[in-house]
Amino acid sequence: MTIVSQFMTRGVRTLAPSDTVMMAAQAMEHLDVGAIPVCDGDKLVGMVTDRDIVLRAVARSLDGSTKLSEVMSREVHCATEGQSVEQVLAAMAQAQIRRMPVVDDKRKLVGIVSLGDIAAKDSADKAGVAQSLGDISAQTAPDRKA
């Protein structure tokens, strides 16, 4: 069984809920990523994505000093190090996400795994990755919640 710890990235850059949207955008630019975990100490409390910044800050005319706690996604789908890659791919497909934080049993962030990580390193599961990407990319009705 192939497990998540074989594919995940460790030593992930994180931000705090009190950090700003500007800090998040600058970190994303510097790291060339579209999502950063938000932690209170070492406990995962959310994720902030480039999409969160655009839709929850820019579209609402909030400025760069807006705290991440105001725009981050709080309900975060997570994996654990011992989960199988197949389980994580299925969870990503179900939630339509391309990356997932990896946490321990106390919700301490230990890494992050992306669909790209699995695709690049797991030549045996190309069909599973392709299926997950198709499911993740399937169009859904827009969420128009205010």
UniProtKB/TrEMBL annotation:
Under the heading PROSITE patterns, the entry gives: CBS (PS51371)
Q: Which InterPro entries match?
A: CBS_dom, CBS_dom_sf, Diverse_CBS-Domain
Start and end of every CBS domain?
A: 8-64, 72-128
Annotated spans, Disordered: 123-146
Q: Which residues form the signal peptide?
A: none
Q: Which Pfam families match?
A: CBS (PF00571)
Q: Please give the SMART domains that the UniProt record associates with this protein.
A: CBS
Q: Which UniProt keywords apply?
A: CBS domain
Is Isomerase among the key words of this record? no
Record SUPFAM superfamilies: CBS-domain pair (SSF54631)
Query: What name does this protein carry?
Result: CBS domain-containing protein
Q: Which organism is it from?
A: Caenimonas terrae
